[in-house]
Structure formats: structure tokens, C-alpha cells
Amino acid sequence: MLSRCLSLCLLSLLPLTALGHGFSHLEELADDGFLIGAEARLLGNGEPGETLGSLSPERQLSPASVSKIYTAAAALERFGPQHRFTTQLLGSAEPDAEGVLQGDLILDGGGDPALTTEDLWRLVQRLHQAGVREVAGRLVVSQWRFGPVACLTTDRCDGQRRVDNAYSALLSSAAVNYGNWCVTVAPARTAGAPAQVTPCDGQADLVRIDNRIETRPPDSGTQLAAERVTDGDGDVMRVSGQISTNARPRELYRTSSDPAEQAGRTLMAMLEQAGIAVAGGHVTTTLEPPASASRLAAVDGKPLQELLLRTLNYSNNFMADTLTLDLAKTPRPSLSQGGDAIEAFAGGLAGHGPLRLDSGSGLTPENRTSAAGVNVLLEHMFRQPSLFPSFVAALQSPSNGVMRFIRRGPATFQDHVMLKTGTLNQPVSVRAAAGYFRTRTGRWGVFSVLVNGTGSTPYLSWSQVLDRLSVDLSAMIEAH
């Protein structure tokens, strides 16, 4: 008995790296056939810190949306936290004394990942302030920087014809509202009548609506479904279900089939409402505006540090991939060429190792990196005093996370960790998480966990990963 007690006591004094490599609970997933790459380590004072946990840290695996932290880091280094993307209205001629623009009005898409109808309204008001009252030519939506961008994933390719989600938006440097149509559903006054369905951004018929929603009696419950389909006449929002007479209005978002065309329709409606007639209708083009075109109005987007908060907190694929294209060094880049720019950035980080990013969002299942490589990136950003505050602020603390599924595990994990997660379900399950932690004594650490399924492994839930990871990380935090 004395010998057994002594052995157990000595075992409890061993470092975490000797006990299941510090990830003793997470390692259980390997027994079910999942591929795991994981590493957690403290950050030293200019030197490599102590490794607290390690499971095949050099293994190349899919990071899913953890890819977005590469995009965020590269964008901060390239543009700086206060950079703003500018969208312009140009004239191919100067307006005359009566306010008539004898030429085309050109929307010069600046690649703003968060251009909204509010920004377009400001453009229109500034155009009006500039004295323009009529456009004799056309409204030309120029996506000369990038767009339409070839789809690389099944979701985006299928979305050119039919889509039932908002996350797989197509890409254009002139896109508005994250490449999504929005409709508002409100109940009719009486049960049995069709619900009221209108565009979110005004009364104009921006997108055709096929309304199959019935108003039901009070407290009957609200169940809504939406699908955007595209026919020979363009996009249709097909909405169905039911809404109670005492329910509040709901908003439904679905990606458009042509973001530049969406921007054109939206801007045309605003120009009409402002009393600025456009004689020639609207068209889209991939041509750069002529050098002789003059600026009539401009609007700057939100600072990059604010864009990253939304990009990472909400894991916004459209914003991440738009930033990826903004980073590309080639004219009219493909998404993978934007990924090349991020790969080049990571290639300059000593000790990173191989990286493949076909997209900055992580929607492309071919993306590959290692847990050790992700930690190199995280440490690099930690050591950038002017960039780190903007970078870490875009991560989530589990206890306050906007993604509710991360609000689990011990209180230590909930309150001492800042992370970004990544999820894919096809062609195999991917659950990934990476970020920073603070130990009980206030030391900083980095961690990365990539869990990939195979063709023979079952579906992997977040609870299976986070329940184990939270216990393992909490032990490391408490022990230091």
C-alpha cells in the first residue's frame, strides 16, 4: 500500500507533458479514428516557451475557419488596424449647370467587405449634394478589382442557381450587404391571410418574392424557411411557413446569384428615391473606370479592426474571402491567388512550416496547416505591440462568446481562453480551435487543436471536442 501511494504521489508531480502529452482527454478521439494535431505552450520572453501539451503538432490537417486568423493577421500587417476601404461614385463627364450628368454614373467597387445599404445611402446623398439631379447615361457597376469570382466549393457553385443559406455568398469587389438578399416577414392583421413580406431595405422591389407564408392565430408559433432560386428573369426569394399574428417581424437572409447585379438594383432604387433619374438603366462590368472619370462622391468603410471583429466573431465567410482577394498582388485575382498572398505572409514566419490556403475563409476543404504552424502565427501576432490588441479583440472568450456552442467546460476554460473555432462537415468532419490562454499566474500561452475525420469516421460534434479540450486546457492553466 505504501509503495502504491508513493507511486501515485510521484505521478501527480510529473509535468503535464508526461501525462498523455497534456491532452490526455482530447487524445481519446484518436481511439475513434479521428486525426488530431494539437499543441499548447507558454510564451517566453523572446524565446520558445515551455510546451504543455503536444499531439502530432506537425501533422498537416484542415483548419476549417481557423484559416480566418491567417487572413486577419495578414490583413493587419498589410493594411494596419485603421485602414478603410473606399467606395466611389464616378462620372464619365462633369454634371452641367442643370445637374445633368451627360454620361455614365460609375459605382467603383472598392472591395469593402462590409459595404451596406447605409453606405450606399450616404453615397447617394453626397451625390445629391454635389448637384447631380439626372444621369443621361447608365449606372455602371464596376467590379474591376475582382468579380465575378470563380466558385471553388460545392456550396458556392450550387448557390449560383439555388441556395438555402447565407454563409456561401458569392464574391465581388462591388458587393453590398455581404452578398445577401434580405426580406422582412411580418404577420398580417388576421389569421389565414398571407404574411407581409417586403425587402429589408425599403419598399422597392429589389428582388422578386414568392410568398407562401400563412398568418396563424396568436401564439401558434413561427416557423419560416427561405430559398433563393434563380430563373431566366433573375433571383427569386421563395419563403414558406407560418407566423403568428402576435409575432414580431423576422428577417431572412439568402445569398444572391450575382452580387454586382444586386448592388446595381439596390443603388438604382436609392437614386430613384432621392429624385435622381437614370435614363439608361444599370449594367455591370469588369472594366476599370476610365482614367478621365471624376469623383462625384465617396464613402469610407469601417476601420479594419472593426471589420475583423465581425469577420472572426461571426466567422463571416464573405468578409474573410473578400479580404483575401484584397490581399492579392495580381490583377483580378482568383480566390486561390488571394490565398497565395496569405501563404507568402506565413512563409516569412520562422518555423511555421507548410501552409495551403485556397481560401481565407476556410470553406475550401483543401486548406492545410499544422497546430505548430498556427501557434507560430499566434506568437508572431502576440509580439506585434501595435497590432496585437486589434487581433486578440477579434477572438471570443467562451463565457461571452457570440457562438453559444463554445459556452461550455470548466470556469477556468470559460474565462481564461480567447479562441477562434472552425467547422466543416463535408467531405469529412472538421472541428478546430486555436487562440490564447492566460494561466493562473498571468502568463500568456497559445494553443491550437485540429481534429479531422476520415471517410470511415462518424460525424463529430463540438461537444465531443470542447468537453475534452476544456478539461485539458484548464489543467494546464491551473498548473501554471
TrEMBL record:
Keywords: Carboxypeptidase, Hydrolase, Protease, Signal
Spans traversing the lipid bilayer: none
Record's protein name: D-alanyl-D-alanine carboxypeptidase
Signal peptide, first to last residue: 1-20
UniProt cross-references to Pfam families, sorted A to Z: Peptidase_S13
Organism lineage: Bacteria, Pseudomonadati, Pseudomonadota, Gammaproteobacteria, Oceanospirillales
Keyword Transcription regulation: no
One MF term in the entry's GO annotations: carboxypeptidase activity
Family from the record: Belongs to the peptidase S13 family.
InterPro entries the UniProt entry points to: Beta-lactam/transpept-like, Peptidase_S13
Organism listed in the record: Halomonas halophila
This protein's record includes keyword Hydrolase: yes
